[in-house]
Amino acid sequence: MKKSIQALIVIVTVALAASPFAMEFSADMISQMATGNIAGKIYFKNPDVTRSEMMGMISITKRPIVYQIFDSTKKYYVSSIDELKNKNPIADAGDFESWIKQNNMKNMGKESISGYKCQIYEGELQVEQSQPPMHMKLWYSKKLNYPIKTEITLPPPMGKMTSYLENIKPGKLPESLFVIPNGYAKAASMEEAMGMPDMGALLGNITTGGGGSSSEEKMPSKEEMDEMMKKMKEMMKQMQQNN
To answer: FRET partner for 53 with CA separation of 20 to 30 A, picked from 9, 68, 76, 141?
Structure first.
């Protein structure tokens, strides 16, 4: 679940920036879910370059590349906006006005949040054809060229997730914020970057292989299973601490 939440936060964070004339700013970013609140930071340099920090992960976007960095493992995983948009239409929202029209988002009026005038948009987004549409509502600041608040209704048991910015501080941001730290290694998968076992590979080992091999020959070892359980317990403990 943690990986899914992180992926969603990354997509929303990197996607909804539009104008090439956006001002630089930093802000606290709060996400409220049924499981509790998650606090983080966002650094917005321009629509192509952003950084977010949440749930032990640093995400640096330099369109079209996204770097997901983990201090706990000293590793990072590289993906792209193109990969994300194949899974979620929010990821292709670089041109905000065009994205609003393409997804039939309705203009629901105006409201001021934290001293910024916002235009409210609301609509249904089809993330996957096999899944029901995802309801989304956002409060978009033209001055910041970024949504100050978003509400996304997720399938049970997660329910509604509300994200908003606090302590917004306009100002020049140092280039060092958008650089991968020295000494960090590139990971081949998100699981590796997070320090988790490759669940797909482990589960795949359970199935019977070709050539008449037995399932016992492909079962993960006791050491591998113990390591997998250890990592899962660590992940659950960290999730509880973050909540």
So the answer is: 141
Provide the Cα torsion 10, 16, 21, 27; round to 10°: -50
DSSP 8-state symbol, 229: H
What is the value of pTM for the model shown? 0.71
Peptide bond into 132 cis (omega under 30): no
Low-confidence residues of the chain, pLDDT below 50? 1-7, 14, 17-20, 202, 205-220, 236, 239-240, 242-243
Describe the crossing of helices 2-15 and 222-242 by its angle, rounded to 10 degrees: 50
Q: CA-to-CA distance for 203 and 207, rounded, in angstroms?
A: 7
Q: Which fold has domain 2-187?
A: outer membrane lipoprotein receptor (LolB), chain A (2.50.20)
As to burial, measured by CB atoms within 10 angstroms (0-12 exposed, 13-18 middle, 19+ buried), residue 223 is: exposed
Question: Per-domain residue ranges for the chain?
Answer: 2-187, 196-242
DSSP state of 220: P
Are 224 and 202 contacting, i.e. CB atoms less than 8 angstroms apart? yes
Distance in angstroms (rounded) separating the CA atoms of residues 74 and 189? 14
Answer positive or negative: Cα dihedral of 28, 29, 32, 33: negative
pLDDT at 96: 74
